[in-house]
Backbone:
């Protein structure tokens, strides 16, 4: 009887040991998988020379449109892409390491990447309605201008929002009396195209080709003597941007 009991106990002990070993193997495997996924996630959050894919293509496309990149938009992070990123980083006060990380993603307007695993920052307070209204203003004021010129008009609106001398909302700035010709002549009500919408998004994401200007005008059509007294900063297309 005692021998039977001892044998039964031994079997139970061995079974428990095998189960524990199996559980340990599963946990170890799961842990390794989680570590691998975490490492992959970290790698995906950074673009550098040798990276490939749609995110690289997006970066190339933005840098090409903004005048930093002259290569092919092929989704391959090569030497030209790295050099373009470094150029963009230098111009935007970032460490010119040629690597697209959180801060560079944010500067590029790729907020879904910049905010991965972190808190949202930048122009997260803007709404879809703000973006669309800004696009309408850009379309009404500058649809005949280059892409940079359209972003510049959007930037002027946003610079006014930040200035204590103007209303502190996008709608307040745009609809301020006699501020924009597009509002006065009704062109603000036209449906903006995708280019104007993209320009609005880029302006909201921090791209300011004007360097902080709060005024712009076409010297050929402007009738106000006062506007000519403002300090000129840059001319983009037919518009003069001033402070």
Residues:
């Amino acid at each position: 009887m005692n021998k039977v009991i001892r044998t039964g106990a031994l079997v139970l002990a061995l079974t428990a040991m095998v189960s524990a070993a199996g559980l340990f193997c599963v946990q170890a495997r799961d842990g390794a998988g989680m570590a691998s996924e975490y490492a992959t996630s970290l790698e995906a959050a950074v673009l550098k020379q040798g990276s490939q894919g749609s995110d690289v293509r997006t970066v190339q496309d933005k840098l090409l449109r903004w005048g930093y990149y002259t290569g092919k938009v092929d989704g391959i992070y090569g030497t030209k892409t790295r050099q373009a990123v470094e150029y963009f980083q230098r111009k935007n006060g970032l460490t010119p390491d040629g690597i697209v990380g959180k801060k560079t993603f944010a500067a590029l307007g790729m907020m879904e990447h910049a905010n991965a695993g972190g808190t949202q920052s930048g122009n997260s307070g803007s709404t879809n309605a703000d973006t669309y209204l800004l696009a309408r203003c850009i379309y009404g004021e500058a649809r005949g201008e280059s892409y940079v010129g359209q972003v510049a008009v959007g930037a002027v609106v946003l610079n006014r929002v930040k200035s204590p001398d103007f209303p502190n909302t996008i709608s307040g700035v745009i609809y301020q009396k006699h501020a924009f010709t597009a509002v006065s002549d009704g062109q603000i009500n036209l449906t903006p195209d995708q280019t104007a919408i993209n320009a609005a998004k880029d302006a909201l994401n921090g791209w300011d080709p004007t360097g902080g200007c709060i005024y712009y005008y076409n010297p050929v059509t402007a009738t106000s003597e006062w506007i000519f007294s403002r300090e000129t900063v840059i001319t983009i297309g037919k518009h003069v941007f001033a402070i």
Remarks:
- The longest helix spans residues 2-44.
- The beta strands are 215-217, 232-236, 239-242.
